[in-house]
């Protein structure tokens, strides 16, 4: 995985896990990769993945069945959305807003772009 | 009696998170007039990958050699898993995997090398060794002298890890590895870190390894200039791109779109540690960092 420059690695791995859950690749109550498996895949220190899993456990996105491993929580999708929404509003939206303001982009234009984007990418 | 005592020590060190390595008041130098380490103190525990950084000549390789009993200190004590490495006891040496930067390999085939050297390590795992050779794409029938530098390096890494030693010491392991081998190396290192192992990697190529390292050790001016976990560093410092400099910034380097800056983490931000920037920052502003990490 290609990591970005500015965000802590354990948070980028959390995004990766959340993305898999939102896209339905990892389903509720299914087992997620072990700490070691994910560390090998991501080429990172297992302690970093452990930190990611601790965070996701606190957000009730995954849970730990002692001795068996980590599983996708039954209400994971809902909890991922809540967690990601806060992150998006706090971290990413200000950057988008800044550009909208600086480049003087109208909300009607944005709305049209947004609708085309959704149609093209998610077939809704 | 001696054997039982040694076994007791090993069982203790292999089953508990303790300081696997204790360095106390170490004084070391290649000549009396030019000390390399002055009263160095440090403790290293199992379950971590330590990244050892320092300028050329700061003593990275010398520190690693001290730990493996390859050089002798003038004074001070060194404790590695309950042993003094200077005594070079087999019970300790079979638990050390040392991958030096420069190495010699005899003119024999891989299987003869293994036959001659694997018996020194009672936990040597032949299946795992074959698996590592395969992952590194080295044909098992090769003669060692006919291999390229990179292939030789991958061979000794594979041999070293197959010994299942608890202390893994690597001096510039990614030197000479091609691009796919570096990725392979990172995957292998991520898989070998277990709770009972202590891994120390010295490197100048921090971008090759920065996501593998969980604790940074930096040597400078005869001593440990910094020893802190990545979590502790990013808790205390923020690494980010800024458009303009202000007085909160401890150190900054110009980049295409402004500056890459290090500053105290006032707002509890979760930034990504930029190891090269930290390295340069500490060399330039040692005094400003000292009070943050004590």
Automatic annotation (TrEMBL), chain A:
InterPro entries recorded: Tscrpt_reg_HTH_GntR, WH-like_DNA-bd_sf, WH_DNA-bd_sf
Transcription is among the record's keywords: yes
Pfam families linked: GntR
Keyword hit for Transmembrane helix: no
Tree of life domain: Bacteria
PROSITE patterns noted in UniProt: HTH_GNTR
Domain HTH gntR-type residues, every copy: 7-75
Keyword entries, A-Z: DNA-binding, Transcription, Transcription regulation
SUPFAM superfamilies the record matches: Winged helix' DNA-binding domain
PANTHER family, A to Z: GNTR-FAMILY TRANSCRIPTIONAL REGULATOR (PTHR38445:SF10), HTH-TYPE TRANSCRIPTIONAL REPRESSOR YTRA (PTHR38445)
Protein name listed in UniProt: GntR family transcriptional regulator
Organism this protein belongs to: Pedobacter rhodius
